[in-house]
From TrEMBL:
Organism: Sphingomonas suaedae
Protein name according to UniProt: Leucyl aminopeptidase family protein
Short name of any one Pfam family annotated for the protein: Peptidase_M17_N_1
UniProt similarity note: Belongs to the peptidase M17 family.
Domain Cytosol aminopeptidase: 309-316
UniProt-listed GO biological process terms: proteolysis
Electron transport listed as a keyword: no
Length: 464
């Protein structure tokens, strides 16, 4: 589904089926107010007002019905009625009382399907939700479109989502929004971005590494850099992953998917910034010319890195991309990366780890995540662990020995490429749902996208 606009419509009194969404603590009063036929139906279904209870309720006419959902999610939750958006038959619906508000987003997200490679026999027509708040529709649809884009890019197998395909996505964005695009590859990449080149140089022909840059907006506006890790497939390199660890590595470009999707929202909403999008796109492959454990790598910044683990490649390509972002003197840098499995051990699949070199920025990100119901969890840039990056022969290693503080040492590595006077935040995210929830199917998913957008709106909307 590419055009989501039919799914949310202004309520002008058009015919629609009714959705009764009742909290458990409202159940007794709601039930008492219902006519006898409704109470009889509820008794026949043995509903008790427990969260998750649902039933089709009869209407006055033979073909008339409404839907009941008992829900204990807060009214501000985007996913309060997502299960209905996913399961109801095609048609037009409105809430019996109140407005859907933020739940409009979950209603739309629930109708996502990834059907590129097989026919979905369960697919329904559109489920349309009416709202008396038409002013919220445009941004809701834009965020839903961005989320669909993240899901599509991550769900795509690596055979159809390589570095050239990420470049094509950026080129499409540039055409739609009138942005400029610059792509560095080949000899220019090897000379200018040696760590990106080293990580990707073993890839097959047609899947060569590259740095993709998009610029948009008024040059007089504050400069915003969005940086994405675009490892389109990660074998682990010569430190090869086991098959179980490689199974989901098509999703290792999830950071790039987030950066591309967020850039689309920024440009589509015409946020008053000078946008600089950077995607380091590579495939970490195994071949005779693959970079090796023990190699000392040059960097764009001039530092040297002893490569202690070829499976810690994401931080290498981000280091060169961050250096390029810094050269343009941005007001803010945000980077997105599926960077460490250790972050998932610490926080699980739902919570992206947030690192920031600026407490005010971190606070704004966390507050925005709470408001958008898109939570983040801050981990420290703990100076005491910086010594773990010490190398005997180079300026630093890319991956310390031992199991401790993996997300933190990865973030500290990235911090070496960002001056303290530039606000910077790093999101280490999973970008994958291991199990389905209403509005959030199993597979690739956006995490921290809504939180980041809410923070950017608060930071820049008044700068015009």
């Amino acid at each position: 589904m590419t055009d989501l606009s039919p799914l949310l419509q202004p309520d002008r009194g058009q015919p629609a089926r009714t959705l009764h969404v009742v909290r458990p603590d409202q159940w007794a009063d709601w039930l008492k107010a219902q006519p006898a036929r409704i109470r009889t139906t509820i008794a026949a279904h043995k509903l008790t007002g427990k969260a998750g209870n649902r039933a089709v309720l009869p209407g006055d006419k033979d073909d008339d019905w409404s839907m009941l959902l008992v829900c204990d999610e807060a009214e501000g939750s985007p996913f309060r009625i997502a299960s209905l958006g996913e399961q109801l038959p095609a048609g037009t619906y409105r809430l019996a009382t109140g407005e859907p508000g933020g739940a409009m987003l979950g209603w739309v997200l629930a109708q996502y399907r990834f059907d590129r490679y097989r026919k979905d026999d369960t697919a329904q027509g559109p489920r349309v939700l009416l709202t008396g708040e038409p002013g919220r529709i445009e941004e809701t649809l834009r965020l839903a479109t961005a989320t669909f884009k993240v899901r599509d890019l991550i769900n795509m197998p690596a055979s159809d989502m390589g570095p050239a395909d990420l470049e094509a996505e950026a080129a499409s964005l540039a055409r739609v929004h009138g942005a400029s695009l610059n792509v560095t590859r080949g000899d220019a990449l090897e000379q200018g971005y040696p760590m990106i080149h080293a990580v990707g140089m073993a890839a097959a022909r047609g899947r060569e590494p590259r740095l993709i840059e998009l610029e948009w907006g008024d040059p007089t506006h504050p400069r915003l850099a969005l940086v994405g890790k675009g490892v389109c497939f990660d074998t682990g390199g010569l430190d090869i992953k086991p098959s179980a660890g490689m199974r989901l590595m098509k999703k290792d470009m999830g950071g790039a998917a987030h950066a591309l999707a967020l850039a689309g929202v920024v440009m589509g909403q015409r946020l008053p910034v000078r946008l600089h999008l950077l995607v380091a796109a590579v495939e970490n492959s195994v071949a005779g010319n693959a970079f090796r454990p023990g190699d000392v790598l040059r960097t764009r910044k001039g530092l040297t890195v002893e490569n202690t683990n070829t499976d810690a490649e994401g931080r290498l390509i981000l280091g060169d991309a961050l250096t390029r972002a810094v050269e343009a003197k941005p007001d803010l840098i945000l980077d997105f990366a599926t960077l460490t499995g250790a972050a998932r051990v610490a926080l699980g699949p739902d919570l992206p780890a947030l690192f920031a070199n600026n407490d005010a920025l971190a606070g704004a990100m966390l507050d925005a995540g709470d408001a958008a119901k898109d939570p983040l969890w801050r981990l420290p840039l703990w100076d005491g662990y910086d010594e773990m990056l010490k190398s005997d022969i180079a300026d630093m290693v890319n991956a310390p020995d031992g199991p401790f503080a993996g997300p933190i040492t990865a973030a500290l590595f990235l911090r070496r490429f960002v001056p303290r006077d530039i606000a910077w935040a790093h999101l280490d995210l999973f970008a994958w749902r291991p199990a389905a929830k209403p509005g959030r199917p199993k597979g690739g998913d956006a995490m921290g996208l809504r939180a980041t957008w809410a923070m950017l709106k608060g930071r820049y909307s008044d700068t015009a």
